[in-house]
Amino acid sequence: xxxxxxxxxxxxxxxxxxxxxxxxxxxFFNKSGGCGCHNENITTATTTTVTPSRTNVPPGGKIDFxxxxxxxxxxxxGFGIVVSNEAFTAPVGKFTHGSxxxxxxxxxxxxxGKVISGTPREATWSFxxxxxxxxxxxxxxxxxxxxxxxxxxxxxxxxxxxINVGTSSAETDTGDEMLAxxxxxxxxxxxxVPESWSGGTLSIHSTEGSMLYREESIGNAVQWDTxxxxxxxxxxxxxxxxxxxxxxxxxxxxxxxx
Length: 258
What we know:
By secondary structure, this protein is mostly beta strands. It has one helix at about 5-15, and strands at about 40, 45-50, 55, 60-70, 75-85, 95, 100-105, 105-110, 115, 120-130, 135-145, 150-155, 160-165, 170-175, 190, 200-205, 210-215, 220-225, 235-245, 250-255. It folds into two domains: about 5-165, Immunoglobulin-like; about 175-255, Immunoglobulin-like, CATH 2.60.40.3080. Strands 1, 3, 5, 7, 8, 9, 11, 12 and 13 form a nine-stranded mixed β-sheet that branches. The chain has a five-stranded mixed β-sheet with strand order 14-20-19-16-17, with no helix packed on it. It is globular and about 50 Å long. It starts with a helix and ends with a strand.
């Protein structure tokens, strides 16, 4: 499909359903209202992850995001993301982004499909979001689609991610103070623990939120054999390391390759 025509279709879809944003139970745009942008199917073949730099922010504060869409066979990917109240009726805040995406009706979406590549095979986008001036609890809704051409593919939405604006003193961020290696990991993962985090708790989670490993009163390093609590090796994909101590929280993103 001609890029101009495809963009026009996307705009028309948005206009026919202006109140429908990133629905956690389905696609972003209302196909029953006439949208034919993509004929995707929900599937576990596609993995969509959203990594925030923090989840607690003061009013007007900024959060950096990395959004990833993974698929083993499809050549290209796209996404959509919005931050809203829990009732999913009032988008909030403002996105700042690069040239590979744009905002429509308060929703950040991709431009042309981005090539899926690397190990694991993924396409990523980086952008930031500025919190509203009104304190409150908000939620990130996002969806990713992996496509073979302009109109067919597979999509997957994330579990809504809670964002606290001026409502919590806990610090949540990502950073370079602590790095896990190797990344990607093939069998054994090592997480060095800085002295300031010693005595805390480290846990490892899947993108669906399942806890795969947990260790309390940690010392100067933690090792994970990339197995589930049942002793099975986890499949290839993205996993999250969460380190907590007192009112601080550090999140690291690692990839497992089989």
